[in-house]
Design goal:
about 90 residues, mainly alpha, about 70% helix, extended
Length: about 90
């Protein structure tokens, strides 16, 4: 899944960014830490989901997708002072 996402990003990036200088890698600490966190978070999520599927069955993890959507909406409203609209 991550490989396909990277390929899609590369294709879109080629059409959007035409300057070769912007494609060089920068050895900035923030960029390295962001990449590491992305890899670790993705790996940790896949590990936890696979363990839950093994223990509880394949129906258990998808039921939390709607719960995470509700929690994201509530936290966005509380932390970022965003308005919640219904019916749009």
């Amino acid at each position: 899944m991550s490989l396909v996402g990277n390929i899609k990003s590369l294709v879109v990036g080629v059409f959007i960014v035409h300057d070769r200088a912007e494609w060089t890698l920068i050895t900035d600490f923030h960029q390295i830490s962001d990449n590491d966190q992305g890899v670790l978070n993705t790996g940790l999520a896949f590990l936890l989901i696979s363990r839950v599927i093994r223990r509880s069955g394949p129906i258990y993890p998808p039921m939390f997708n709607s719960l995470s959507l509700v929690m994201t909406t509530v936290l966005e409203s509380v932390l970022l002072d965003a308005d919640i609209y219904l019916g749009r």
